[in-house]
Amino acid sequence: MSDRLVAIREAERPVVELRNGAEYRAILGDDTGAGVPVRTGIQTSAPGYSTPVHSHPYAEILTVLDGTGEVWLEGDDNRVGLEPGVTVIVPAGRLHGFRVIGDRPLVTFGIHASGKRIVDYRD
Questions:
Q1: Which of the residues 26, 40, 41, 92 has the least number of beta carbons within 10 Å of its own beta carbon?
Q2: 10 phi and psi, to 5 degrees?
Q3: List of domains in the chain
Q4: Could you give the count of Cα atoms lying within 13 Å of 25 in the half-sphere of its Cβ?
């Protein structure tokens, strides 16, 4: 980890196409966050998008920047509405998913409580 101040500009980060109509921009990633114990990124999910059910071996924190959706934990009937200003914490190891509701993209800022982003898909 650097002992200097590091500035990372979202607009300069590469866009990665995810399956089913979403884009992800790592902010703190392997090339910008060496030695930092978290990973961050911004995901833009198109209307109709739904994540595959997945888990992480660490907590994931999502803050909604724009759009609407819902998030859930597998095996739990409770669904939490997503809208700007809402932050959710997904517990480590829990299968979960989220989907876009409405006709606008859902934009989330995600924090992975790990130095490496790990996604374990159910299928």
A1: 92
A2: -50, -45
A3: 10-116 (2.60.120.10)
A4: 14
* φ, ψ dihedrals at 104, nearest 5°: -115, 150
CB 14 within 8 A of CB 27: no
What predicted TM-score, i.e. pTM, was given to this entire model? Answer: 0.91
Torsion of CA 123, 58, 74, 86, to 10 degrees: -120
pLDDT one-digit tens code per residue, 52-111: 999 999 999 999 999 999 999 999 999 999 999 999 999 999 999 999 999 999 999 999
Tokens at residue 46, please? Answer: 């198109």
Query: CA 38 to CA 115: how far, in whole Å?
Result: 5
Q: Which helix (H) or strand (E) holds 100?
A: strand 96-101
Q: How far is it, in rounded angstroms, from Cα 121 to Cα 24?
A: 17
Closest alpha carbon to 82 in 71, 73, 95: 71
Contact 26, 32 (CB under 8 A): yes
Residue owning tokens 């790592």 = 26
